[in-house]
Design goal:
The protein is α+β, with helices and mostly antiparallel strands. 41% of the residues are buried. Among the domains are: 136 residues, no CATH class; 194 residues, Valyl/Leucyl/Isoleucyl-tRNA synthetase, editing domain (Isoleucyl-tRNA Synthetase, domain 2, Alpha-Beta Complex), CATH 3.90.740.10; 167 residues, Orthogonal Bundle (Isoleucyl-tRNA Synthetase, Domain 1); 61 residues, Ubiquitin-like (UB roll) (Roll), CATH 3.10.20.590. It is built from 26 helices and 34 strands. A hairpin with a 5-residue loop joins strand 10 and strand 11. Helix 21 packs antiparallel against helix 22, helix 22 packs antiparallel against helix 23 and helix 23 packs antiparallel against helix 24. The structure holds one RNA strand.
RNA sequence: GGGCGAGUGGCGAAAUGGUAUACGCGCUAGUCUUAGGAACUAGUGGAGCAAUCCGUGCAGGUUCAAGUCCUGUCUCGCCCA
């Protein structure tokens, strides 16, 4: 890169983005332009937040898009007089660092921090209006100390607990996974099949807040509908009944959960999950061996394979019967893998006539199918054979005293009977599980717990935090956390009795780290608390959160859980962290997903070097709305660069006409081209402001900027200072400032502007002055465009109608037909209806 | 199978029920130039010499007027089963 650009800037020869950008970035950093005074209270607060990156090595275009969007919003709000908080940090614990350590023998910390240094440099090159003094990294002691504090906070409130349970195990990652991290039976990270393992693990009690997590969704008006829906489906509340079926000849009762108690007279058998603890106890000797074989086979199947409706059903009878408490009837008990032990009670009553999977199972094993619900209004033929399960609600038939009731009423009465007679009750069931947070990995926050032979499970006292990650570990071990290989870590005195005890060697899921980082940004250097509650009250919730849709459930739900838990004891005032959420689309390359294997990665460094950050920012906002996928095309980037060059020429070519201190004449006194220019300016400012305020429609914002510049380049302001022209240029630069901050700032200064555009106020606009003096009227005959004419705006409807009817083309079209109706839309259109 | 969303030029895409294709990419022709992969100018949905006709996945409907609203249907995407 040439170094002689300083001269050409002074000569305002041509657009030199690299020199301009470096110059302003340096100046902004030195003057602390983007520092947020958190205590300042004159301006209303605005918290703009991007999902912080994992420091994988280098920035990718998805990052560039994400942070550009948030940056434009932050700058836009600052120019509207808000005190903006726009922080950045690093989600810096995680597996890749550990894998790099194994492969290249580099300590995870070294790998991570060198990546952070590189990516921070890249982000600074992008020109973000970020307050870097608030930077956090979740892998640093001054952060994970407080993550541990959070763990203990939850532990003390009974929201963190340890239990043995069958958990998701990813062989590839050598660790367990939370339910949310298993997608279609595969690991969210590496797509390998997840198996079940029975382990003693730490959980966060997300189910404690199931109802609140669900209910609060209604208040999140600023979230995309589909994210709300995904969370709602994930929590999946179902209201039903738990009913106990006695086992024939044994003193054992099997509770089942059903959402359809109205179908209970149609039960013809019962199914237990193969892992159900009662199976061992119940199975008759004849079946024991084959049942054991079946259980072994089940372990190899994924949840997806087990529950898919289109999969062939398998199962075995246990050779015993259960008694339906409503009918007294004995029904066979089976096991099958389509029933999951984690869901409900791990046992279902099977009603093949009214449940698809039960129907498929009954058909395969020739179990009876008994119809007890019929569509309301249809004459009942209970004996008729069903071709498929009827799963809709309806009217009960062949159901004893409940016959004739509709499903809703029957559910209620049948459940009440169970309650009255003591063999069941109403039950609300959620699909949401508790969050499994233990990980058998090294590069994460150590769980601050000590196990003492005398005192049991003992939390590490606050004053002993952080529990530091040891460095003397062996990364090559499998199946246990590498932390467990550290000789210095494993043993520690019990905080209660002082005798030698064992430390917990698992670390926390990295989603724990990211569940509260937005709070730490507000008070990042606090050494005595995770944050000062007073400041949180002042700054939360996040006004605009921007990130990928892939976190629709995981990160967003965990964060909501944290806020609820913290708000319950007043650490936060609000219980929802993110007021508005924007989920940006992916960045594609020529219509395909960017990936290393396809070799179609666009490297931000190369773009910065060739065109500059402003071109990258401008382009990535230009072609699609932020929510949609964005296609990166080389030729289109060049087009954007050329456009910025045109902006440069446009603003620099008539410098003598620009003087920002001139007073604008009154609108009524403007005439001719000047008046038109003023109208153009007002229209552009108004349109762009609306586009940003309503939907963050940056693609149309950019098309409006282009139209305005196209117009301005042809405008001849003359040699003398021109107030209206200067006003137009000032407006253009302010409108562009959030998107191309360096270019706008440079041109602002070249044109004689003072100070930072960042702190200038957003241009005002007058709706009255957006209207052109002349308008084109479209004339339709019977709804088809036949003619157009141009007139002064604001003419009355009757005049427009009269003018339209006199047009030769219109007269010709009407011919000898009768005009039955005329519709006039002022300043726009006349439609003549003739028959 | 259920829910949600989307289908508009060669491509990315615009359009409070009111001129469909703004803005851009690409393409064509021209001007300037030693040169052009720079800049500028003009053109660019389809058919037709033309008047004109046809055009927003498909089929209907409501309306003076439908890309937009309603009903059905097909395809694709996502989520849930």
């Amino acid at each position: 890169m040439e170094t002689s650009t300083e001269k050409s800037i002074l000569q305002i020869d041509s657009y030199q983005p690299q020199a301009i950008e470096a110059k302003w970035q340096k100046q902004w950093e030195e003057t602390g332009l983007y520092k947020t005074d958190i205590e300042e209270s004159h301006m209303p607060k605005y918290y703009a937040l991007s999902m912080f990156p994992y420091p994988s090595g280098r920035l990718h275009m998805g990052h560039v898009r994400n942070y550009t969007i948030t940056d434009v919003i932050a700058r836009f709000k600052r120019m509207h007089g808000f005190n903006v908080l726009h922080p950045m940090g690093w989600d810096s614990f995680g597996l890749p660092a550990e894998n790099a350590a194994i492969q290249n023998n580099i300590p995870p910390a070294d790998w991570t921090f060198s990546n952070i240094d590189y990516m921070r440099k890249q982000l600074k090159q992008l020109g973000l209006a970020v307050d870097w003094d608030r930077e956090v990294a979740t892998c640093k002691e001054d952060y994970y100390k407080w993550t541990q504090w959070m763990f203990l906070y939850l532990y003390q409130r009974g929201l963190a607990y340890k239990k043995e349970a069958p958990v998701n195990w990813c062989e590839q990652c050598h660790t367990v996974l939370a339910n949310e991290q298993v997608i279609d039976g595969r690991c969210w990270r590496d797509d390998s099949l997840v198996t079940k393992k029975k382990l003693n693990q730490w959980f966060f009690k997300t189910t404690e807040y199931a109802d609140r997590l669900l209910k609060n969704l209604e208040s999140l008006k600023g979230w995309p509908e589909r994210v709300l829906l995904m969370q709602k489906n994930w929590i999946n509340k179902s209201i039903g009944a738990e009913v106990e079926f006695a086992v024939e000849g044994r003193d054992i009762k099997i509770p089942i959960f059903t959402t359809r108690p109205d179908t209970i007279f149609g039960v013809t058998y019962m199914v237990l999950a193969p892992e159900h603890p009662l199976v061992e106890l119940l199975v008759s000797e004849d079946y024991r061996e084959s049942v054991q074989q079946y259980i072994e086979n089940t372990k190899l199947k994924s949840e997806m394979d087990r529950t898919a409706t289109d999969k062939e059903k398998t199962g075995l009878p246990l050779g015993i019967n259960a008694i339906n408490p409503y009918t007294g009837e004995a029904i066979p008990v089976w096991i099958s893998d389509y029933v999951l032990v984690e869901y409900g009670t791990g046992a279902v009553m099977a009603v093949p006539a009214h449940d698809e999977r039960d129907f498929a199972f009954a058909q395969k094993f020739q179990l009876p199918i008994r119809r007890v619900i019929e569509q309301s209004g249809q004459a009942g033929q209970p004996g008729q054979a069903l071709k498929a399960a009827y799963t809709e609600p309806g009217v009960l038939i062949a159901s004893g005293e409940f016959t004739g009731l509709d499903s809703e009423t029957a559910k209620e009465k049948i459940t009440r009977l169970a309650h009255d007679k003591g063999f069941g009750k109403e039950k609300i069931q959620y699909r949401l599980r508790d969050w499994l947070v233990s990980r058998q990995r090294y590069w994460g926050t150590p769980i601050p717990i000590i196990y003492c032979d005398h005192c049991g499970t003992v939390p590490v006292p606050d004053e002993d935090l952080p529990v530091r990650l040891p460095k003397d570990v062996d990364f090559t071990v499998k199946g246990v956390s590498p932390v467990a290989t550290s000789p210095s870590f494993k043993n520690a005195p019990c905080p209660k009795c002082g005798t030698m005890a064992r430390r917990e060697t698992d670390t926390m899921d990295t989603f724990v780290d990211s569940s509260w980082y937005y709070l730490r940004y507000i008070d990042p250097h606090n050494e005595t608390k995770p944050f000062e509650p007073q400041l949180i009250h002042q700054w939360m919730p996040v006004d605009q959160y921007v990130g990928g849709i892939e976190h629709a459930i995981l990160h967003l739900m965990y964060s909501r859980f944290f806020m609820m838990a913290l708000s319950d004891s007043g650490w936060t005032e609000q219980d929802e962290p993110f007021k508005n959420l924007l989920t940006q689309g992916m960045v594609l390359k020529d219509g395909a997903k960017m990936s290393k294997s396809k070799g179609n990665i666009v490297d931000p460094d190369a773009i910065f070097k060739e065109f500059g950050a402003d071109t990258a920012r401008f382009f990535i906002l230009s072609d699609s709305p932020p929510q949609a996928d964005f296609d990166w095309k080389e030729s289109a980037v060049e087009g954007c660069f050329k456009f910025l060059c045109r902006v440069w020429r446009c603003v620099t070519q008539h410098q003598s006409a620009i003087s920002f201190s001139l007073a604008l004449p009154a609108y009524e006194e403007m005439s001719g081209e000047t008046r038109e220019l003023f109208q153009w300016t007002n229209r552009t400012v108004g349109g762009i402001t609306t586009d940003i305020e309503t939907q963050f429609q940056f693609n149309t914002v950019i098309s409006k900027i282009r139209e305005f510049v196209n117009y301005l380049s042809k405008f001849e302001p003359g040699e003398e200072p021109n107030a209206v022209y200067s006003h137009a240029i000032a407006a253009l630069l302010k409108l562009m400032a959030p998107i191309t901050p360096h270019l706008a700032q440079e041109l602002w200064v070249i044109s004689g502007g003072d100070g930072a555009l960042y702190t200038q106020s957003w241009p005002k606009w007058d709706a009255v002055a957006t209207q052109s003096d002349v308008v084109e009227i479209v004339v339709q005959v019977n709804g088809k465009v036949r003619d157009k004419f141009t007139v002064a705006s604001g003419l009355p409807q009757s005049t427009l109608e009269e003018m339209a009817r006199q047009r030769p083309k219109v007269i010709q079209q009407i011919g000898d037909q009768q005009v039955v109706k005329v519709i006039v839309v002022p300043n726009k259109l006349v439609n003549i209806v003739a028959k």
